[in-house]
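**Sequence with structure:**
===
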Amino acid sequence: MPKEIFGLSVKPDLVHQVIISQMANRRRVIAHAKDRSEVRGGGKKPWRQKGTGRARHGSIRSPLWKGGGVTFGPTKERNFKKIIPKKMKRKALFMALSSKVKDGELVVVDELKLENHKTKDFVKILKAILKGKTESALVALAQKDDIIMRAAGNIPRIKIILVNNLNALDLLNYKYLIMPKEGIQKIKEIFK
């Protein structure tokens, strides 16, 4: 295990900054209220400007009217993206991997193979690897394996990820990191 990847001291401030940026970048803007230009109708002036004794109005879709637009509601145009330098992301990933090694939460197996895509078979393998513990686990594969991905698809608190997609947020969200030996070789190749 290379010391420059698995032997770093953890700087919580750096890891926190990277995780906050990753969470912000994953955030989806769902809340959206229509303003007066997006609400349907209201093309015609409701009544003439002068002479009726009523207040002047130009559209029935004004925010003052029932069924009108929302004045300062949330919109889809909000942007929560945070840009973090690549070196900082990489350093935070190495620190998260180092903390897994220090805490004894990194499990390296010779190989991870399944004959068929049965979930119960994969659960047996996980129980054997984790020695019966029912904690959450992140399984990092060196290359895509459809059988394992399919077998683990509906197991709660288990996530399958490729080694080249490892990130600090996923590493800290799951208690254990399970990785085949070839995954460590792949990490060395990717992060030279």
